[in-house]
Each structure stands twice: as structure tokens, then as C-alpha cells.
Amino acid sequence: MFSFIDENGCRVDLRFDAGPYEITPKHVLVLVQYDGKWLCTINKKRGVEFPGGKVESGETLIQAAIREVYEETAVHITDIKWFAYYVVHDKVPFGKVVFTGKVQSIDEFIEEHETLGMTWLTTEELWNHPNLSFYMKDEGMKKMLQEVKNHERQW
């Protein structure tokens, strides 16, 4: 387990094993790489971040991942794989599952989507982006991107 304190002062426990879950996850985060660049969404309030969000009633974690990526970026994904799990120990702790996915197709982004659009960033561009969401700057994100590289070698 990898633990750190996020920018909001909350302890976060990040794991790369398949469980069991400490808290039932009700949020998803999705890491998608295409042509050497990361798919990011531009959140209206938080800035640039990986797509993700809350699981809706009756929806599986994978269904939520697929839906959230499309709603936020107009990108259809496939080959969704479980990657990590973390718990944010806030006043009301919550769990989030991290998936990886592959681009199936990309639709034209229209303003009906939930964000200002999407952007594709290299890892270097990601770390140096002036408008990153708070969670994209923490030690957990750096650890996840490091682990993605390790997993890519195994895939």
C-alpha cells in the first residue's frame, strides 16, 4: 500500500492489488493513453484531470468508467482493465477504482458534454500543465503513472 496526504490534507491509501475493498467504491477514474499521450478532460472548476466520476444507481464500475469517459471527452473506450483502488480518508471516506482503457473511437466534442472538452498530453506536458486539478498534482498520481509504465511492460 502507498499512503500520502493530498492537497486537502486527507490521508489517501492507494493499492495496486485486487482487494478486498476497504470501502465499497462509488467513484471511478480512467487512465487512457493513445499515441503516447494521456486523455485528459478540462473540468470547469478543477482544471485538467483524468476523466472519471460517480457510479450511478444500477451501474457497474466498468459501465461507469465507459460512461464517464464518453460524457467528459467524447471518446469511446474499450479493453477496460482494473488497475488500482484508493480510499480518501475525508470526513466521509470514499473509495475510487482506477481503470485503464484503450481508445475505440473519438466523436466530435459538443457542448452538451459535462466539461469544456478534452486534451491529449504527453507525460511531460501533464506534469508541467499550468491548470492541473488538485488531485493530479499529488504523490498518488505520480505513483499511478509510474505503475502504468510497469504494467505496460507486462501487457
UniProtKB/TrEMBL annotation:
Classification via CDD domains: NUDIX_RppH
Annotated InterPro entries: Nudix_hydrolase, NUDIX_hydrolase-like_dom_sf, NUDIX_hydrolase_dom, Nudix_YtkD
Source organism, top-level taxon: Bacteria
Hydrolase found in the keyword field: yes
Signal sequence bounds: none
Annotated ranges, domain Nudix hydrolase: 13-145
Keywords, sorted A to Z: Hydrolase
Family: Belongs to the Nudix hydrolase family.
PANTHER family assigned to the protein according to its UniProt record, in alphabetical order: ADP-RIBOSE PYROPHOSPHATASE, DIHYDRONEOPTERIN TRIPHOSPHATE DIPHOSPHATASE
A Pfam family that the UniProt record links to this protein: NUDIX
Origin organism lineage: Bacteria, Bacillati, Bacillota, Bacilli, Bacillales
Coiled coil: none
PROSITE patterns with a match to the protein in the record: NUDIX
GO molecular function, one term: hydrolase activity
Name listed for the protein in its UniProt record: 8-oxo-dGTP diphosphatase
Protein species of origin: Ureibacillus xyleni
